[in-house]
Amino acid sequence: MNSSNQTSPFQLGKTDAQLEDFTDSYILFQETTRRYREAYEELAAKFESLTLKLEETNVHLQQSLEEKDRVSNYLNNILESLSGGVLVVDLDGAITFFNQEAEDITGFEQQKVLGQPYAEIIGLNAGRELSVLHTLDTGERLASREKELRQGDGCTIPLGFSTSLVRDEDGTVLGALEVFNDLTEVKRLEAEVQRVQTLAALGEMAATVAHEIRNPLGGIAGYAGMLERDLDSDDPNRRLVQKITEGVGRLNRIVVSLLNYTRPLRLNVHPVNLVELVEETTAFFAIDIERSREDIHIERRFPDGDLICRIDPEQLQQVILNLLQNAMQAMPEGGTIEVGLRTEGELGVLTIGDTGVGMDDEVREKLFTPFFTTKEDGTGLGLVTSKKIIDAHNGQILVDSEPGRGTQFSISLPQ
Question: Higher model confidence: residue 206 or residue 4?
Fold first, then answer.
């Protein structure tokens, strides 16, 4: 056998060693591959788990955001629906919330005040200590305070308000809140109650005084009559006696009016067609003034159908005649008296207006005060008695007047 074709023991040993190294490398590669595969599978499992958790977290976050938006919208709807004005300022004093009622009360538009300084929009006319800025500065809560507010149109109204700080769930101050209401109607009612109490006390006193005055008036009138009979018709003193009699008669009319005012009303209420009653009363008045005033014109504005109200026709007729008489006397140079009737909801509304001299604010405020009159021969009890009659019918009488632009009385009566 040729020696060149034979494999030496050394070569065999080397080949075996290489094969063994290859086998070990292969096994190591396989083990490494297995470990990488296991690590990959473990990483994939963790990735899938994290993906699921992230999806769950996103779902919860979305639900939380939706719930937060729902609660926020709900709270905003509540704030917008409140009967009082609500505004919120941030730490810099800028307005961040302004509900619809706040817009209605102040006269400032919602969109124009957001982001604007409170001091420039609402103003500090009552002082900084009577504003939400005081609460922002000191942390002091203001409760049930009052101040005056200048509205967007320049008018001033009484305002009741309360303030407090706005904090987050950690107690950090975010701003301050002011809640306010228009007190115009409240102040009017307070003044009305005060007026009624004053009138009640005055009525009791006046009734007593009237009874005490009436008796000596009767004696004066009797003695004056006897004296007049004893005087000759051409005696100059007879005219003086007649003046005494006229003065006593005027005083007696005042006393009678005063007693009628202080006496409790007994109404004979039943359904009455207000159109017919006002037309008859106006026609009667028109016939009376035609004899003395040709410069007075009466216009009527009545509905076509009936207007039924539960009233005492005699008492209401007295009110109508009194208002017509006042309208005529308010036009010394002539003019127009307008008498109207209309329906407003469940109310029948009677209006009597004139084109006369009108009234200023001072006169208008005292109009329903006993013994207040602008007439030389007036008693000051006509309008007071008229208001008493309307109040007894659960109605309301209002007056609108300006100097030089006439006067209009409006009477509202339940149908």
Answer: 206
